[in-house]
Design a protein that fits this description.
alpha/beta; three-stranded antiparallel β-sheet; elongated
């Protein structure tokens, strides 16, 4: 049985310098993303598109969503297959191409590095990325390839 989950966010443009969008350079791309009960996210456009480099941009947040979703799906899979993960980090990358006034993402690559506690877990830990990728809601929702290039290493129970 399919379940439906609804999400609500509020995005407010804060870049009116007093003349609105009277010209392309007359406003900033600054905005605030609000989600009830959570800290505000200060956003802007990518610096390339006249945005503030000190704020999050939508392109970064899309890649962030992919990396977070894979990580959370992966940690669930690790539990299911009996893998003890003690550290996880991902330096994800993505490529976007622009043409005219539009563009699109062409690829994202996740590079999760997972630390497990026993050498006998390495194979299962590596394999669990496949099912995690299939389970990731965000990866299933985009129309460009999301590749996963995992590394699994052996480490102790304490974090460095």
């Amino acid at each position: 049985m399919a379940l439906t989950h609804d999400y609500t966010v509020s995005v407010e443009w804060t870049g009116n310098r007093g003349t609105g969008t009277s010209g392309y350079r007359d406003y900033t791309r600054d905005h605030v993303v609000r989600i009830d009960g959570l800290p505000d996210i200060l956003g802007s456009a990518d610096r390339t598109f006249r945005g503030d480099a000190g704020r999050h941009n939508p392109e970064q947040l899309l890649l962030t969503s992919l990396a977070q979703c894979h990580m959370l799906s992966y940690l669930h899979q690790a539990v299911k297959v009996g893998v003890v993960v003690v550290d996880y980090h991902d330096d994800a990358t993505a490529t976007m191409q622009t043409e005219g006034t539009g563009g699109r993402f062409t690829r994202a690559v996740l590079h999760p590095v997972v630390t497990v506690t026993e050498e006998s877990m390495i194979e299962a830990a590596t394999s669990a990325h496949h099912q995690a990728h299939l389970d990731c809601f965000i990866a299933n929702s985009v129309n460009f390839p999301v590749d996963v290039e995992p590394t699994v290493i052996l480490g102790g129970l304490e974090r460095p």
